[in-house]
Amino acid sequence: MMYRFNLFILLIFAGMNTGLAQYFFPNTPARPVTDTLHGYTLTDPYRWLEDKDDPEVKAWTQAQHDATLHFVNTQFDDIPGLRAEIQAYIDRDVESPMQLVADRQFYTLRRKGDKQSKLYTRLDGKDLLLFDPEQIDPSGKSALSGRSFTKDGSRVAVGIQSKGAEINTYYIVDTRTGKILGDPIEGLRGFAWTDDEAHAYIWVRTQEMINAQQPIEIRLHKIGSARATDQTLLVPEDAKNTGSVFDARYSDLTFFSEGDFYATHSLRMKRTGSNDNPQEIYANQKYRASPYAIGEKIYFYTNHEAPNFKLMVADKKRPGFEHWKELVPEREDVVLESYTITDDYLITVEKKDVLSRMVLRQLDGTIIKEIEAPEVGNIASASYNRDVDALFVGLSTFTSPYKIFRLDPAQLESQKLDWELYYEQDAPIDTDELEAKIVFYPSKDGVKVPLFIVHKKGLKLDGNNPTLLYGYGGFNIGISPSFVGLRAAFINRGGVYAHAGLRGGDEYGESWHEDGMLMNKQNTFDDFIAAGEYLIREGYTNTGKLGIEGGSNGGLLVGAVITQRPDLFKAAICGVPLLDMVRFHKFLIARYWIPEYGDPDKKEDFQNILTYSPYHNIRMGIDHPATLITAGENDSRVDPLHAKKFAAALQNNLGQKNPILLYINYDSGHGSGQSTDQLIDYYEFRYRFMMRQLGM
């Protein structure tokens, strides 16, 4: 039965001077489906919204989206100057760092007015356009999604995806002429040249495979040949597992790996180009190990019995795990984030209390010294380019755009290094009056959690500052200082921006991650709630001025805390979220995340998930914060059904008075795929919603 959609506006007036309308949402009929799972009886009133191809669901979705636009656009005045600031930041010339391949230079550039970035090369002192996705898709809804160069840079495989679907088509391009060679290679997740460069390893992913929850297959493709002749190399047993095959750039070894998000179930290797059967050198159901081969040595970055990670090394003639030796041992107070190796040195990037530094070592791991950055900031990356014999170091801060410096490896032991500024974006963002700091607050169980806070200088701690608290807390992804970017528009208007390093991330190694996953997932939510309480307790804000935001796993976070502590927050933005956790693993690629959340088909995991699943923990009669729920209709990671079902359940919950708004990005996936104009509209809408809700 198709419903009729009518939008009524009833004006009421808030206590100060703002007229605010009651939001009347489109009707959502309840069609209960009852399941008995592990002895529990669950009723799902909005399961019919899971089928996004159903005409009724399409009509309902459009009606919800239209109602959201109408409500915000008619009831929340424009923020003076906000759109212009967002447009100036997004629609400008944005050039990527120059990528050096052999003696060639490559970069992407999106000029003011362009819909998407384009790939260029600098050849004989002139800039040559190599690939323009707008020539493939004039609508501007297809974006660059990856590229793989041959060793001499003479050819590049360029991937594009349409509307954020993360199903890529690769084009092979001659980098001296820009000519596309042969037919495009469709239905891929990734592409990597083999050592002989006559073939490529391709990761096969189609929409049909996603819908059927089939694992990504890795095949060997001969360039220029029909796909029917591709050779299948690796197919994971379960869709929650992934695989990898690659040829080492600086050694004659090929590696095969398979595992889940966090464990290397099997790591094998063979001599590149041989017909040998790959030899297994590592296998574990709990830990992971990543190989990097140079000449006769193989380096392994691993958390094997080392939650803060360590670096090990082996001879390629004796590659088995029993022969691995520690090169950089694990330490309790420092997380080994990454490493790079020159001909003479080992450089490690190490994190302590959420800030990273760079350490120079001898090739045997012995520390020489800490390399001091040229200015105060966080060492975000360090990589050695053997083609040009240069070390590139990324530096990030809250108040200046990301910078990359170039160092001469021969000078690394010098007292005074020559830090050559290699790259810096010119961003039209005013940060002169901003200041940032890190604090540590106690969570519910007393554990100290890091929190970045950014605000204007001279902020008064009078408990009345609009505050936006952001969090993620999962998948071993942590916080680090990074340029505020568009958030400066919020901060410069008197807002406080806070970013919490919740358990589930990598702030303190794998132990910190494990303390916020599986049976410990509630710790993540407790940490976020405690961050809000800290900001109120310390005089930054109050419950009427505190907004929260998170996306993907952070969307689950937002959904969980507004159902657990609806009294604590004024407003929320819940982006591309997981919300029906009882059924999350049944859609798209979500089986990948079973190692993070658990398997609802197992009773113990199900019982834990049910305690926090936002869709199942909406309390009748409770008024939840004003919430903007966003989803990408083409999302191949998190199905938009989560956003739709949660919005319907909240809207129809007795006692809900604050608006629950559903915003659908029809030309987007999991946060990607939108054109420049669409991005401007989207960010202006989000910021206007949040800032007006917080009284700005």
Automatic annotation (TrEMBL):
Belongs to the peptidase S9A family. Residues 487-695 form the Peptidase S9 prolyl oligopeptidase catalytic domain. Cleaves peptide bonds on the C-terminal side of prolyl residues within peptides that are up to approximately 30 amino acids long. Has an absolute requirement for an X-Pro bond in the trans configuration immediately preceding the Pro-Y scissible bond. The keyword Phosphoprotein does not apply. Pfam families: Peptidase_S9, Peptidase_S9_N. GO terms for cellular component: cytosol. This is Proline-specific endopeptidase. Gene3D superfamilies: alpha/beta hydrolase, Prolyl oligopeptidase, N-terminal domain. Residues 31-416 form the Peptidase S9A N-terminal domain. The keyword Mitochondrion does not apply.
